[in-house]
Structures are given as C-alpha cells and as structure tokens.
TrEMBL record:
<feature type="region of interest" description="Disordered">
    <location>
        <begin position="405"/>
        <end position="434"/>
    </location>
</feature>
<dbReference type="Pfam" id="PF03108">
    <property type="entry name" value="DBD_Tnp_Mut"/>
</dbReference>
<dbReference type="InterPro" id="IPR007527">
    <property type="entry name" value="Znf_SWIM"/>
</dbReference>
<dbReference type="InterPro" id="IPR004332">
    <property type="entry name" value="Transposase_MuDR"/>
</dbReference>
<keyword id="KW-0479">Metal-binding</keyword>
<feature type="compositionally biased region" description="Polar residues">
    <location>
        <begin position="1"/>
        <end position="12"/>
    </location>
</feature>
<feature type="region of interest" description="Disordered">
    <location>
        <begin position="1"/>
        <end position="21"/>
    </location>
</feature>
<dbReference type="InterPro" id="IPR006564">
    <property type="entry name" value="Znf_PMZ"/>
</dbReference>
<feature type="compositionally biased region" description="Basic residues">
    <location>
        <begin position="413"/>
        <end position="422"/>
    </location>
</feature>
<dbReference type="GO" id="GO:0008270">
    <property type="term" value="F:zinc ion binding"/>
</dbReference>
<protein>
    <recommendedName>
        <fullName>SWIM-type domain-containing protein</fullName>
    </recommendedName>
</protein>
<feature type="domain" description="SWIM-type">
    <location>
        <begin position="335"/>
        <end position="367"/>
    </location>
</feature>
<keyword id="KW-0863">Zinc-finger</keyword>
<keyword id="KW-0862">Zinc</keyword>
C-alpha cells in the first residue's frame, strides 16, 4: 500500500518541465490531426517566428509538431524566365538567395518595398505604398540550415509602378550574364531590347554601361586581381616551353598588329596575355597543318606570284651568253641574268628572293622550274621547320596561386575614357577618319584635342577665376 502511495505522489509531483504537445490533443485521430495543425498555424500566426534565438528544445518541439512536411514546406525552385510566386513556408538555401528572389519578384510585379529588417538572421519588408497590406517576413528555418518565409501577406491595394528602381546595374549584369558571356562587347541597344523583351525593364544608358562593365569583369577577370597571378603565369609559360624565349614584338606592321589584338584590348592583363598566347598557338597549328594541302614546293601565295611572273616572261627575249648567264631583252632594254648567283640587273630577284620576269624567262629558256630558283626560305621544308614548334596547352588560370604583386596605381583622368590607340608621330591616320585636318590644343600644344577637353589643364583654374571675378563684382 505504501508503495502505491509513493508511486502516485511521484507521478503527481511537478518536475518543472512541460508535457509533450501531443498530450494537449484528444485521443481521436481526426481531432488530433486537426487540432494539432490548428495549433501549429496559430503559433506561427501569433508569434511570426520573430524569435531568432531558438534553443535546441524549441526547435525539437516545432519539428515534432509539423507532420507531412512535404505538404507544408516547399522548396523554392524556378527556372529562368519563369514567373516567380512566393508562398508561406517556402524554403530557400540562405538569406542571399531569398534577397535575390525577392528583388526579382518585386521587379516582376512592378512595385517598391521598404526593408524594415534586412539582416542575416531575418528579413522583413512591406510595400512602399502607404496603406498597402503587402508584407513578408523570413528568417532561418527551425533546423537552422535553410531560410524560410514565416509570414506572408500577398494582397496589394496600391497601384503598380512602372519605374523599376530595384533593377540596378548588378541585377542587369546578372540577368544578361549569358548574353555578355557570348558577346562581352554587346551593344547598349541589344542589351536594352533584351531587358524590355524578357523583364519589361527600361534601363538608363548609365546603368547599361555599368552592367556591361561588371559583366565583362566577371567574364574576363578583374584588372587588379589579374596581377596576383601574372608571375605564376610567366613561370608556367617558361616551364611548358622548354628552351624557349618570350618575344616582345614580332610585328612591325601596325595594321597586322591591330588585327591580332583588337578584340583583346579591353581585357585584363592576364586575359590579354593568355588570349594572345591562344591566338599564336592556333596560328602555329593552322599554318603547320596547311602544308599538307600544298601542291607545289612553295606556298599558295608564292605559287600564284610565280604563275603571274611566268605569264609576263613570255614577252621577253632570251640570248644565252654561256656559263648560266643570259641577256634578256624586255622591249628595247637589256638585262643580264645569272642563274647560279640568282641575280638580275633590275635587282628585283635580289630584293624579294623570287625570280622576276627577266630571270623567269631565262629559266623557261633552259626548261627549268621557276619554283626551284626561289629563295630557300620560300620552300615547303623551311615552312614546316618554322611552324613545327607547337605550343604546350596550359591549365585554367584560376588554378594558379596568388602572389603579392599589386597593380599600378590607377589615376582616372577627367573626361570620357579614351578607346582609340595612341598613334606614333610618323604614323598615318586611320582610313575611316572623319576629320580632314587635325585639331591642336591651345593649352598643351598637342594634336588630337582642343582646350576644352584637354586633360593636362588645371582642374580648379576655372573655378578660381570665377571666384575672382565674383569678388570684384561684389
């Protein structure tokens, strides 16, 4: 008997802990399920889960209370260019994804918001129009892994705004990422048309300029960060190319040089050097592979030149002088030719290394092949040797380690950034130049600009003069 009394007293004794929430419901399965769901909904509506300092016990109780988790919680998943819809209990990866989706949603629905709370632990936003009931609140999920919409009121009573202020340059660069990857120099007109067609956004030209610059930096790399890998890249080039050397400049023709690198000038220094390396690598491979299709002992261009010279040689008259020496008459003019020394009195053979019509006439006279009398550097075997040094492929630049190399200090000059190349003093103007005469600056005496756009003029001189005149008048 005493044992039963002790047992009863131990059961009725309050131990300071709350009973499981399941004991609050009835024994009926239907009533249990309904009351339980109502209890959870009531708890969420009243508290809105604004308490961000959840303890492990509270998280455990919430997990127990939610049954059929797949029906209540929904993972956010939307493909590109699909309409976004937000729901209560929707799950996101983290707060950054939620902020990105929220920005896309308000741009899609044409309204502005006020972010009451915008922290890592919670985000609360309301409609910017006064009196509109739209409101959303999100914070970490009970398990602390994801980010969940805890409270959401989707109704709007305001008028939609067509001015989309949240469509900034960063958002535009993100939405046009694929287009900018395919064409980093995408025109502003194409960017504007794509934004209007896909998202209904009319962007300002300055926004398009910043968006294209950000998209280009993401694709081509930042100019400042590329210097941290430039030393490792140079060492990698010397390591892969055993016994080789780096040539500073191989072209002396400015037109050829501009044709090679005009698409790379806007890239960062690392992407620029690597892009030139890829161009040279492909050029070597293309030229080396093209020798298999040669039908002569010389290249196609030289073969065309020889055929033209052979046609002109038909109108020349040849008289042998003995010892591989000949006199060739071109009209009323006489030219001595030596087939052993590869010389002609007109000096064309010595200069170009190709027989001119006088030498070609002497070669045809002895029934020889003109291509055999060309300089050795035009022959097929020399061409193969020149392009046989194939380049080794390199790994991705992102795998290179960073160093402590810093970029040179950036000094932004006044005025619009210059895109045209600075030409040499003795270099001709471009063929498509609009200006017939060159403008000379009255300030620095240089050509190509006037005093108004001079970048060497003192910036504050004009303001000082205005202040001086104002003080005199006063």
């Amino acid at each position: 008997m005493s044992t039963n009394i002790e047992a009863i007293s131990s059961v009725n004794e309050y131990d300071g802990t709350e009973p499981p929430i399941e004991q609050l419901f009835t024994d009926s399965d239907e009533e249990y399920d309904v009351n339980k769901d109502q209890c959870v909904e009531s708890y969420l509506d009243n508290e809105e889960w604004n308490e961000d300092d959840y303890t492990s016990e509270e998280e455990g109780e919430v997990e127990v209370n939610i049954e059929n988790e797949g029906e209540i919680m929904k993972r956010f998943d939307v493909e590109d260019n699909e309409k976004i819809s937000l729901e209560k209990f929707m799950i996101f990866v983290d707060v950054h994804e939620f902020r990105s989706v929220l920005r896309d949603y308000i741009i899609q629905e044409n309204f502005d918001i006020i972010r009451v709370k915008n922290e890592k632990a919670r985000v609360t936003a309301i409609c910017a129009s006064e009196g509109c009931p739209w409101r959303i609140h999100a914070s970490p999920s009970p398990d602390g892994i994801a980010f969940m919409i805890k409270s959401y009121e989707p109704r709007h009573t305001c008028i939609r705004k067509f001015e989309k202020r949240n469509a900034n340059s960063t958002w535009i660069a993100k939405k046009l990422k694929q287009s900018l990857n395919a064409d980093p120099n995408m025109s502003y007109e194409l960017m504007s048309n794509e934004l209007i067609t896909k998202f209904g956004v009319e962007a300002h030209p300055k926004q398009l300029y910043r968006a294209r610059r950000k998209g280009r930096e993401e694709v081509e790399g930042s100019h400042a960060l590329s210097y941290k890998k430039i030393v490792k890249f140079a060492n990698l080039l010397l390591e892969k190319k055993q016994g080789g050397s780096i040539v500073r400049l191989e072209y002396y023709d400015q037109m050829t040089l501009e044709e090679e690198n005009h698409n790379l000038r806007s890239m960062s220094v690392l992407k620029l050097v690597d892009g030139l390396r890829v161009k040279i690598m492909m050029r070597f491979y293309t030229q080396f592979s093209s020798t298999a299709s040669w039908s002569y002992n010389v290249g196609p261009r030289i073969a065309t030149e020889i055929n033209k010279t052979t046609e002109d040689a038909r109108y020349c008259k040849v008289k042998p002088a003995g010892g591989h020496r000949y006199e060739v008459y071109d009209g009323f003019t006489r030219f001595p030719v030596n087939l052993v020394l590869h010389t002609c009195e007109c000096k064309a053979w010595q200069i170009s290394g190709l027989p001119y019509k006088h030498g070609a006439a002497a070669i045809i006279y002895i029934r020889g092949k003109v291509e055999n009398y060309c300089d050795a550097y035009y022959h097929k075997d020399k061409y193969i040797i020149a392009y046989s040094g194939l380049h080794s492929p390199l790994p991705d630049l992102d795998t290179l380690d960073d160093t402590d190399v810093l970029p040179p200090p950036l000094r932004r000059l006044p005025g619009r950034p210059r895109k045209s190349r600075i030409r040499e003093k003795d270099e001709d103007a471009p063929s498509n130049a609009r200006r017939i005469s060159t403008v000379r600056c009255s300030n620095c005496k240089d050509l190509g600009h006037n005093k108004k756009s001079c970048q060497r003029a003192p910036i504050r001189a004009k303001k000082a003069k205005q202040i001086f005149y104002y003080s005199i008048l006063k």
